[in-house]
Write a structure and sequence with these properties.
Elements lengths: L6 E6 L5 H10 L3 E6 L4 H6 L4 E4 L25 E4 L1 H9 L3 E17 L14 E14 L5 E5 L7 E6 L2 E6 L11 H12 L8 H16 L3 E5 L4 H14 L3 E7 L7 H12 L3 E6 L1 H7 L6 H22 L3 E5 L4 H8 L17 H5 L2 E3 L7 H10 L4 H4 L19 H20 L8 E15 L2 E14 L7 E2 L4 H14 L3 E6 L13
Helix pairs in contact: 5-6, 5-12, 6-12, 14-15
C-alpha cells in the first residue's frame, strides 16, 4: 500500500536488529519500511524517503563482496543515519579508514557526547549516557568533511556527522534501537523529527481509514472469502475487511478436530454473534482424524493437514458464486523475510498457511496487514473493537494439536492434551503472566513412565510444559515461570487429567531448539 507521505527507509545489511530499528521509528508514529541493501539507487529514490537508516550487519567493509550501497546515495540531500556497519560503510565509501579493533567492544559502554546539538539534543546527563556496543571493527580515520560528535574509551569516534552542501549524514558505532541503550529512542526521534522533518502521522486510526478505502476500491462489488482460524492475524484481517465491505465478505472456519478446547465456540460467539460477520463453520473432525491415522512423522502430519484444509476450503468456496478475492493475514515480518538481504531461511518445518491457496484457486489476494508488525496488529484489533481474548491470543500452529501430540494422533490422546493445555492456560492467566509469555502450552510425549497413585503402580503418559518469551518468534528463551505456578500446573494435570502421571518443563531456547516440539 502506498499510504504514507512521511517515510523512513531502513536498508538492511543483515543485522539481527534491523526489524527493531523499523519498529522503534514506527513507535514514534512515523512510517518506516525495510529494503534489502541490494536495491538499486533508482528504487530507493522512487520511494521519496524523508530519511534513510543504514543498519548494522555481520560483515566487515574491507572483506571481499562486503554489502554496500552506491556512493551517489550520499549526495541526494536525504538525511542518512548509519548504525554500526552502516557507519563503517559510510566511512569506507567516503574515503576514511576502518580497521579491526584491538579490543572487540560488546555490551554496555559509557558514551561521552562532544556535540549535544541536533542528534544528541536532550540526551545525556553531564554529556554522558549509556549505550550498547556490538562491533569488532572501528573507525581509524574519519572521511574528509566528517567530525566526531561522541566517543567512548575504546572508540575515539563513536559517533560522527557531516552536514554541508547536499550531505546530511550522521553515524553511530552503537545501537540506539536496543533497550540496552536507554536514550536510544530519543536519539532516533531526534533523527526522525528534527533532522528528517517527519511528522507523527502513522496511527492505527489513520491506517484503518486508508486501508478501508483501498479495500473498497480494490474489491468493488465482488465477493470475498477469508479462512478464519481464530488467531490474531486472520481475525484482525477479517474484521478490517468486514469494516470495508460488510456482507461481501464470507469467513470460513474449518473445525479440523485438532483445535484447542472451546475454539469453535469462541469463533462463533465473536464473529457471528458479536461482529455479525457471515461465518460458515465446517465440522471436518472425522475426515482430519482419519487422514492422520497412523501418521507419526511431523512433516507428514503438516502436509496431510494442509492437503485436507485446502480440499475442504476449495469445496466450500466453490459453493459461493462470484468469489474473486481471498483475505490473508500476511504480516510485515513475512514480507521482510522474503526480501531479506540475508536470503530465504532454511526450511526447518513446513508451515501450514493459507498461502498455498491462491495459486490453486486463482483468487486475487487481499493482504490488509502486510505492512504491520504483530504488536501493531494487536493495536489495530483494539481499534476495530475486537475483544481482548482475541487480540491477545498467543500464537497457535496451523497444524494445531496434531504436532503437540507426539507420535500417533488419536481422539483419546487429543483429549488428554486438551485437558493439560487448558490447565496450563488457566494457571498462566491466573498468575498474570499471559501477556508476558509469547507461547505457553502442553505437549503429550509418546512415552509412558511408572508412577504411584493411591498405593497402586501406574504406567501412564508424560506431559511436557513449554513456555517461551520472544519478540517475534524468530528467537526465544524459556520463560522463568515461578516454581509455585509450575507446581500448581503439575499437580492439577496429574490429578485432573486421566492418563497422566508425570509432568516435565522444557528449558531449551530457540535456537538450538524450536518453540514447537514438532
Amino acid at each position: 500500500m502506498e499510504l504514507w507521505h512521511d517515510r523512513i527507509l531502513v536498508l538492511d545489511f543483515g543485522s539481527q536488529y534491523t526489524q527493531l530499528i523499523a519498529r522503534r521509528i514506527r513507535e514514534a508514529q512515523v512510517y518506516s519500511q525495510i529494503l534489502p541493501c541490494t536495491v538499486p539507487l533508482a528504487t530507493i529514490l522512487a520511494y521519496r524517503p524523508q530519511g534513510i537508516v543504514l543498519s548494522g550487519g555481520p560483515s566487515s567493509v574491507y572483506e571481499k563482496k562486503a554489502p554496500a550501497v552506491p556512493k551517489e546515495l550520499f549526495d541526494q540531500g536525504i538525511p542518512i543515519l548509519g548504525i554500526c556497519y552502516g557507519m563503517q560503510l559510510v566511512t569506507h565509501l567516503s574515503g576514511g579508514e576502518v580497521a579491526k579493533s584491538k579490543h572487540r567492544e560488546y555490551g554496555r559502554a559509557e558514551l561521552t557526547i562532544d556535540d549535544a546539538s541536533d542528534l544528541f539534543a536532550g540526551i545525556g546527563k553531564d554529556r554522558s549516557t549509556v549505550v550498547w556496543m556490538s562491533h569488532g571493527d572501528r573507525i581509524e580515520r574519519m572521511p574528509p568533511g566528517f567530525r566526531s560528535i561522541a566517543h567512548t574509551e575504546n572508540s575515539p569516534v563513536a559517533a560522527m556527522k557531516r552536514v554541508d552542501g547536499k550531505r546530511r549524514i550522521y553515524c553511530l558505532q552503537f545501537h540506539p534501537e536496543v533497550a540496552h541503550t536507554p536514550e536510544g529512542t530519543q536519539l532516533l526521534r531526534n533523527f526522525v523529527y528534527q533532522i528528517c522533518g517527519s511528522k507523527p502521522t502513522w496511527t492505527m486510526q489513520s491506517y484503518v481509514e486508508t486501508a478501508v478505502k483501498q479495500i473498497r476500491e480494490q474489491v468493488g462489488s465482488q465477493r470475498v472469502i477469508c479462512a478464519l482460524s481464530g488467531g490474531v492475524d486472520s481475525s484482525v484481517a477479517a474484521a478490517l475487511t468486514h469494516r470495508a465491505i460488510g456482507d461481501q465478505l464470507t469467513c470460513i472456519f474449518v473445525d479440523n478436530g485438532v483445535l484447542r478446547a472451546g475454539e469453535r465456540d469462541q469463533v462463533q460467539k465473536t464473529f457471528a454473534s458479536q461482529l455479525h460477520l457471515n461465518l460458515r463453520i465446517l465440522d471436518r473432525t472425522g475426515a482430519f482424524l482419519a487422514g492422520l491415522k497412523n501418521v507419526t512423522d511431523p512433516e507428514r502430519k503438516r502436509k496431510a493437514i494442509g492437503r485436507l484444509f485446502i480440499r475442504n476450503f476449495e469445496t466450500e468456496a466453490r459453493k459461493l458464486k462470484g468469489v474473486r478475492y481471498l483475505v490473508q493475514g500476511t504480516l510485515y515480518p513475512d514480507v521482510i523475510e522474503s526480501i531479506s538481504f540475508k536470503g530465504p531461511s532454511a526450511t526447518i518445518k513446513t508451515h501450514h498457511n493459507v498461502g498455498g491457496l491462491p495459486a490453486r484457486m486463482r483468487l486475487k489476494l487481499i493482504e490488509p496487514l502486510r505492512e504491520l508488525f504483530k504488536d501493531e496488529v494487536r493495536v489495530l484489533g483494539k481499534e476495530l473493537g475486537l475483544p481482548d481474548e482475541i487480540i491477545w491470543r498467543q500464537p497457535f500452529p496451523g497444524p494445531g494439536l496434531a504436532i503437540r501430540v507426539l507420535g500417533s494422533v488419536t481422539k483419546e490422546r487429543l483429549a488428554i492434551l486438551r485437558g493439560a493445555e487448558t490447565i496450563v492456560d488457566q494457571e498462566i492467566r491466573s498468575a498474570g503472566l499471559y501477556r508476558d509469555i509469547w507461547q505457553a502450552f502442553a505437549v503429550l510425549l509418546p512415552i509412558r513412565t511408572v508412577g504411584v497413585m493411591g498405593d497402586q503402580r501406574t504406567y501412564e503418559n508424560v506431559v511436557a510444559i513449554r513456555a517461551v518469551t520472544s519478540l517475534d518468534g524468530m528467537t526465544a528463551d524459556w520463560a522463568k515461570i515461578p516454581n509455585e505456578v509450575l507446581g500448581r500446573m503439575s499437580n492439577r494435570i496429574i490429578n485432573e487429567v486421566k492418563g497422566v502421571n508425570r509432568v516435565v518443563y522444557d528449558i531449551s531456547s530457540k535456537p538450538p531448539s524450536t518453540i514447537e516440539w514438532e
